Amino acid sequence: MTAARHRLRTRPAPLALLALLVGCGGAPSAAPATPTDRGWAVAWVNGVGISRATFHARYVEHTRDYRYALRPANAAAKRAWVMRVLIDEALLEQAFAAAVTARERAAVSAEIDAQVRRYADPSERAQLRARLERSRWLDALIDPDALTVTADEVEWAYTVNKRLYVVPGRIRIRRIVIPVAPLTEPRRRPLVDAIAARAQKPGADFYGLAFEHSWGPERRRGGDMGELIDRDGAGQIVDRATLLAVGEVSDPFVVDGSWHIIQVTARTPARLTPLSEAEGSIREALARGKRAEAGVQLMARLRAAGTVEILIDLADGSPSAPRPWVYTR
């Protein structure tokens, strides 16, 4: 049985990288720097301007996009966040352009065109193109050796997260349901006890008793509830069933205002998924974590080597407020 994919204990990527990977909108303006006309730009990144139109469009998009679950609460923080994302995108795009040939850039562009062509909505196509471009830029700039996952790392992750690879047991139950009737309970309880006594006799036909006496929705199936997950917190019926052997019938008990008599017909014990089955999903999860970490380190190097000048006040009317994301060489 293939192990379900679970989140392993890996270092999460910072919000800046997440925004870089999942953000949407047009790419930063690549207009060259001009010493006489600078009013159209909100920032310069290594001599390349980010236009006011790009900044405004991304700010509006960021404000209304549901995917930004951790968006800042105030306008100044949102402006700072959008500026950070645009600067990071510009640095990444410039590094990609310098690292690959024109033919390789054309091949990446053709591949992205083929994928976005399936979408008719222009907005969806623009968002998908932006995400794919940033993903391809990172793939081209990250050292493949940094993404290698060793056998020791896989074994460590499996050991630390072993509980995630436990396949819970399953139990199959039949039941007879008889509603509790406060006004006639003195007469109904003897009937419940009599049905339970008949069901507990060796060789008793529980299917027939459920079909004849049960008020439950599964009466026509002989009270068969199907397979249920056998684990803590699965419900009072399952909790009672865990105390019974296969074929054993319980004493009457009340759940949700009805008398229940249950029989366990089959049980599959819990098992630990072996490492050989879980290895594929573990390697994928570890590779994603390594890629995120490599992206963080790459962006740190690009910021340290870049020259960025922000031309607008992100604090909205506070000239003395700090600008936390200005990188200068």
In brief:
The protein is of the alpha+beta class. It has ten helices and nine strands. β1 and β2 form a beta hairpin.
What is the rounded Rg? 31 Å
**Element string (H = helix, E = strand):** HEEHHHHHEEHHEHEEEHE
Taking pLDDT < 50 over at least 5 consecutive residues as the criterion, the unreliable ranges are 1-36, 317-329
Number of strands: 9
**CATH overall fold name of the largest domain:** Triger factor/SurA peptide-binding fold
> Could you name the CATH class of the largest domain?
Mainly Alpha
Helix/strand/pairing class, anyone? alpha+beta
Indicate the proportion of strand residues. 5-15%
**How would the global form be characterised?**
elongated
- Mean pLDDT comes to 80
Properties at a glance:
single chain, 329 residues, alpha+beta, Triger factor/SurA peptide-binding fold, 2 domains, 10 helices, elongated, disordered C terminus
Care to describe what's here?
This protein is of the alpha+beta class and 329 residues long. It folds into two domains: 15-150 and 276-310, Triger factor/SurA peptide-binding fold (Orthogonal Bundle); 169-269, Roll (Chitinase A, domain 3). Helix content is 46%, strand content 15%. It contains ten helices and nine strands. The protein has helices at 15-22, 52-64, 75-99, 102-116, 122-141, 151-160, 185-199, 206-213, 236-241, 275-305, and strands at 41-45, 48-51, 166-167, 169-179, 224-230, 253-255, 258-268, 271-272, 308-310. The strands form three sheets. The protein has a four-stranded antiparallel β-sheet with strand order 5-4-7-6. It has a three-stranded antiparallel β-sheet with strand order 2-1-9. β1 (41-45) and β2 form a beta hairpin. α6 packs across α10. The longest helix has 31 residues, at 275-305. The model is unreliable at 1-36 and 317-329 (pLDDT under 50).
